[in-house]
Amino acid sequence: MSVAFVPDWMRGKAEVNQETIQQLLEENDQLIRCIVEYQNKGRANECVQYQHVLHRNLIYLATIADASPSSTSKAME
C-alpha cells in the first residue's frame, strides 16, 4: 500500500523526511513501469487503479514541495 495513504487521524502529524520521499519516488517508478506494461499488453482498463495511486503520490509530493520554505530559495539560486 502506498505511503501516501494515511488515516485521517494521522494526517498532518507524520514527519516528512528524505526516506519517505525516496520511498514515494521508488513506488512511483514501479507504478509507471506497471502502467506501461499493462498498456503495452492492451490492458489499459486494468491499469486505472495504478494511475490513481500514482496521481495521489504525485499530488502528495507536490504538496510537500509547495509547503517547503527551502524549495523556493533553492530554485532561485
Mean pLDDT: 81
What is the number of beta strands?
A: 0
Note the main sheet.
none
Termini separation: 37 Å
Can you describe what's shown?
There is one protein chain. Helix 1 (18-40) runs antiparallel to helix 2. The model has no long low-confidence stretch (mean pLDDT 81). The protein is elongated, with a radius of gyration of 15 Å. With 77 residues, the chain is mostly helical. The protein is 66% helix and 0% strand. It has one domain. Belongs to the SS18 family.
Short descriptors:
77 residues, mainly alpha, SS18 N-terminal domain-containing protein, SS18_N
Summarize the structure.
With 77 residues, this protein is mainly α. The chain has helices at 18-40, 48-67, 69-76.
Topology:
Blueprint: H1 18-40, H2 48-67, H3 69-76
Helix pairs in contact: 1-2
